[in-house]
Amino acid sequence: MNVWNNDATNMINGTDGTLWNPYVDKLKPLYLFAPEVCRSVSFVYQKPSNVCGVSTYRYQVNPQESQMPNFYPRNAGYGFKNCLNGNLTDTVNINKCCLGKGVFSLLYCKDAEFVLTGSHMYGSEQFINDIKGINKPSSLVASTWIEIDPITGRPLCGNNNVQKNFYIRKTKILENVYD
Hints:
With 179 residues, the chain is mainly beta. It is 8% helix and 26% strand. The chain has one domain.
């Protein structure tokens, strides 16, 4: 894959989400390649659960996946093309080159002016104050998770809550679009 800014972020890791190895070790993350966002996403064990009488492990998207590169350097490759200078302590440059915590870009992946967030901006709450009429999201409703049968490695159910947002670039004809 040749979408992102470095080899690590262009790698395809994990399965398509229909099956993992049997005898799942809850101490190890599960990796899923999500073609709709052109990236591999790690899931971490959240808690024991139960689906129709079958004991399961609930995995959630690794919270680090949505962090800015200065907090999770692996995400440095997902910024704007040719923007980050390699200095992950330069927060001014990071804020200029990356969309924000919890925002997944589709700008290069799908060549589209869209970004993904959790539903109701879950995971990217810093934007909620800029949107009139939106309430803080609940993790019970807005999070993404998978229930895995730990013996077979099969997912039994899941919840994938994402919200597609338009990415609007600053332009002279729109007064209320800020950097």
